[in-house]
Amino acid sequence: MNETSKKGPLTVGDLYCGAGGFSEGFRQAGFKIEWAVDNWRPAVETFRKNFPGTNVIQGDILEKKEVDPKSLEKVDILIGGPPCTHFSLANKGGNGDLKLGLSLVARFIDAVEVLNPRYWIMENVPNLKAILERHEDQKAFSKKRLEKFFEKAPVLRAEEYGVPQSRQRMFAGKFPEPLRMGDDPIPMSNIVVGLPNPLADGQNLPGEVVDPLYNSISLPTSRLTDHFYDTTLSREQVKMARRWKEHHPWYGKMSFPDSLKRPSRTIAATATKSSRASIVILDKRMGRKYRVPTLRECASLQGFPITYQFWASGPSDKQRLIGNSVPPPLARSLALAIARAEGMPPLQSPDFPLRESPTNSAPTRQRKTYVHPIRRPYEFSVEGTLPYCRVGLDNGGRHPAYPLGRGVHHLVGWRTVLFLGYAKDYAAFRVDLKTALEIVKKIEGAIGEQLAKRAAKTAISELIGVIPDATSLQASWAGKTDLDENPDWILQKVAEIAEEVTGGPDRSREGVKASELARLLKGRRIAHGDEIDERRWHNKNVDAYTACSLLSLCVAVKLANEGTQWLRRNWRNRYVANPAMDSLQHPDDSSRSEDESSLQSLARID
């Protein structure tokens, strides 16, 4: 045992402290949290309430006049996690500021140099080291500095350290390796079943709650915060979540609902109900109800004790506090490794005092009726097309001209997309009717079977005059009209047409390699994955069922964007998006419609 450990517990400073998950783990291991720094008010308030004896500083660490590392008290251990949203691979929306992220990491390293702690640990996403290596030209991340500060940067899996959640994070610094908790990870069911049913009324609730992770903690059910409110999914949300998990255009299939027998997937800083990222629970305690975890369940899945309180103005900020935290059990494992290295006796039973609770500790029980924006995005695929060769429909095209009035455009442009590849190794191509027809003819020549004429005739006869115009179709997707012929209906109809022509996906897998279609697809790529390899998607097979789906969907898209028959028959039922549309005169019934003139010739192809 060294001199410092004889004098008392080792001291800890926490940069970018957030809600305090990192510090909570060290507190549980018997360390003293001396100070913490963060720039976000809800994080600072949450930390202060849960660590009343700690000096919590609110300020921007990039501004020396607000937080100067030289003014911070010397500590034995420096911990922290610079905000990872600037580096996360999940951040596809372009919201990450790489320059700012690099500055925050550099500032943490500056603090290490100034404070010279005996141990230091910086947490971040697994790909941070690779990002830093690509910026070796910058002084803050020279090769020499990277070798000094990031020589040790293991990626740890939270589920191996007593966290009921699958979560991988990099931990760089100077610290001994933590000990894993065992081979059997904690399943999500321990949390879901261990906490009371959030949908139950007061008469059906237990009088006391025992923490599902920390069995020594119990409190009156009335004191359990952020849990008793309705998180059930509507019928549409169930449908959307299922489709993105089971039938994503290019990513692999995920289980729906999430398995309670395994650790949960990563708790994120934002919570959604109907996306691929949504954690969906099938709760059978009051019938079969699909729901997402409550804030308290998310906190327990992160490893926070039920006495820990989150102070923020609303549920979204609380979710951010929880999702951005270092799981306390993982942090405790790191702290215990340092304690062992220092010869410190293990803390047998840390205390878990129940702190003051926020007044807004329970979001409203009333479920919100979500109103979709009129330009609600759409993207989904024809059932039966393969994961590596999918035919998709979306509304991300250019806004075509309204066919019955000059200077007026549709709300959206519908388009047919061919996805080739899988996961991050994919390419997406916009396909028009002419290109789809050429693709089908290519496959005709390869398999010796007539497809184009049959597919075109069937699609035109079943869809002409039935497909709503692009604007009305969009309005049906946004819930502004009650049309039965919505985008999902179109995909279902296309699948039926392809099955009628080919005999179904299981009987029509003959086709051609995508490389034989490269000339036709040249210049049509609209998206691709981060790990795209031309050689791999060139090797994918485009079969007869996929090609007929492609052609049929292109017919439907052309009718939506340019057709007039549906408009002439449903003039009063069409969706009017702007005054220019409202001022249009009903077309003469004897006028020759575009869909009649252009598609009739297609149905007569040889």
How many strands in all? 18
Shape by Cα distribution: elongated
Distance, first to last CA: 90 Å
Low-confidence runs: 1-6, 89-95
Biggest sheet layout? 7 strands, mixed
Structural class: alpha+beta
**Main sheet: strand order:** 3-2-1-4-5-7-6
Task: Spell out the key features of this protein.
single chain, 606 residues, alpha+beta, Rossmann fold, seven-stranded mixed sheet, five-stranded antiparallel sheet, 33% helix
Protein architecture, described:
The chain is of the alpha+beta class. Among the domains are: 3-184 and 326-342, Rossmann fold (3-Layer(aba) Sandwich); 379-603, no CATH class. The protein contains 21 helices and 18 strands. It has helices at 3-7, 21-28, 41-50, 98-115, 128-133, 143-149, 189-194, 235-246, 295-302, 315-323, 328-342, 433-447, 452-463, 470-477, 487-502, 518-521, 534-538, 544-562, 565-569, 579-582, 594-603, and strands spanning 11-15, 32-38, 55-58, 77-80, 119-124, 155-157, 168-174, 208-210, 218-220, 281-283, 289-291, 379-381, 389-397, 413-422, 425-431, 511-513, 525-528, 541-543. It has a seven-stranded mixed sheet with strand order 3-2-1-4-5-7-6, sandwiched between helices. Helix 13 (452-463) packs antiparallel against helix 21 (594-603).
Topology summary:
Blueprint: H1 3-7, E1 11-15, H2 21-28, E2 32-38, H3 41-50, E3 55-58, E4 77-80, H4 98-115, E5 119-124, H5 128-133, H6 143-149, E6 155-157, E7 168-174, H7 189-194, E8 208-210, E9 218-220, H8 235-246, E10 281-283, E11 289-291, H9 295-302, H10 315-323, H11 328-342, E12 379-381, E13 389-397, E14 413-422, E15 425-431, H12 433-447, H13 452-463, H14 470-477, H15 487-502, E16 511-513, H16 518-521, E17 525-528, H17 534-538, E18 541-543, H18 544-562, H19 565-569, H20 579-582, H21 594-603
Parallel strand pairs: 1-2, 1-4, 2-3, 4-5
Antiparallel strand pairs: 5-7, 6-7, 8-9, 10-11, 12-13, 13-14, 14-15, 15-17, 16-18
